[in-house]
Amino acid sequence: MSASSWTGTAAGRSNGGSLAWRGTAGSDSVREVTRAARKLGLPALTLYAFSAQNWNRPPDEVSGLMDLLRDYLHRERPEIMDNGIRLHAIGELDRLPSRVRDPLEELRRDSAGTRTWSSRWP
Predict the structure, then answer these.
(1) Alpha helices, DSSP H only, in 18-117?
(2) Which of 34, 50, 53, 113 has a CA that sits 20 to 30 A from residue 60's CA?
(3) What confidence tens digit (pLDDT) does each residue in 4-49 have?
(4) Between 3.40.1180.10, 3.30.470.20, 3.30.70.920, 3.40.50.1980, what CATH number should domain 3-14+25-121 receive?
């Protein structure tokens, strides 16, 4: 079992990276870690996409992070489905705006019948 953070903002801020850049770098890292975990035969992988502390950020930053998560779900959906990955989300999902919660729930539902390999979100 492994854990990784998708938002990793301290490094992005110290490097002067924009929120969009940090999100792109984060989604690239998630893709690399997920592929490596599958190659290693790990039965499950836990990824933290949005911690409870992130809700304390300024509203425009929270909204930007939500947009990044929504975009990631749409962009990575084909890879998740094509590779038989079951997406399982944990946390306070009811706090997610519908623009994120709806595609997350749809992907969870659609991937439920695939292998038992899973990623955990918020």
Answers:
(1) 19-40, 59-82, 98-111
(2) 34
(3) 344 444 334 444 455 544 556 677 888 888 888 888 888 888 887 7
(4) 3.40.1180.10
